[in-house]
Amino acid sequence: MKKIKSVCVYCASSSKINPRYFEAARETGRLLAQNGMRCVCGAGNQGLMGTLANSVLENGGEVLGVIPRFMIDEGWCHKGLTETIVTADMHERKERMAQEADAVIALPGGCGTMEELFEIITWKQLGLFLNPIVILNIDGYYNPLIEMLHNAIGENFMRQEHARMWQVAQTPQEAVDAIQNMPVWDKNIRKIAAI
């Protein structure tokens, strides 16, 4: 295990969602700040992304936002972050967010959030990302996705060992505890990436 100094949080920009998800974003932000962990996020100013960033900042923490130029042009960028990195496109954004992270937490979200989560799990399977990944399963939101991952293992698209690439947490506190206690992944596991 290594000390977690920087946590990438994947989350939605939608504002028309259950208030429970906003509570989870606020609590996650508070916990990251109180534990001295920098938050890395997509630099959005709306939805869970904006709520998360505001909570980290309000609690004395730091937020690094990574956002592609076209999103700035659309007016979607949070203007009060500690630091903002502008990328050429979404691919560069995701790569930079992963480079800056000692761990990943996925809050509830839509296609973009799930795509980011699946990509970072894939990178871990290939030994390209070795850090903790936690799925924050607020109110069972991710139950179908978690079931699908286990189904992929059951159908031999992945190995049983790959189930250790992520952990599932029910609360922000469980998520923060999990990233601090998960061991660093062995990059040699890529030798069993294919079945």
Question: Would you give an account of this structure?
Answer:
- The chain is α/β, with parallel strands linked by helices.
- It starts with 5 loop residues before the first strand and ends in a 14-residue tail after the last helix.
- The protein is built from 7 helices and 7 strands.
- Helix 1 (19-34) crosses helix 7.
- It has a 7-stranded parallel β-sheet with strand order 4-3-2-1-5-6-7, with helices on both faces.
- Strand 3, helix 3 and strand 4 form a beta-alpha-beta unit.
- 42% of the residues are buried.
- The protein has helices spanning 19-34, 47-58, 69-73, 90-99, 111-125, 143-154, 172-181; strands at residues 6-10, 38-41, 63-68, 83-87, 103-106, 133-136, 167-169.
Topology diagram in text:
Elements: E1 6-10, H1 19-34, E2 38-41, H2 47-58, E3 63-68, H3 69-73, E4 83-87, H4 90-99, E5 103-106, H5 111-125, E6 133-136, H6 143-154, E7 167-169, H7 172-181
Parallel strand pairs: 1-2, 1-5, 2-3, 3-4, 5-6, 6-7
Beta-strand percent range: 15-25%
Coarse structural class? alpha/beta
Radius of gyration equals 16 Å
Helix content: 40-55%
Mean pLDDT: 95
Task: Flag low-confidence runs.
Answer: none
For the secondary structure, the number of strands is: 7
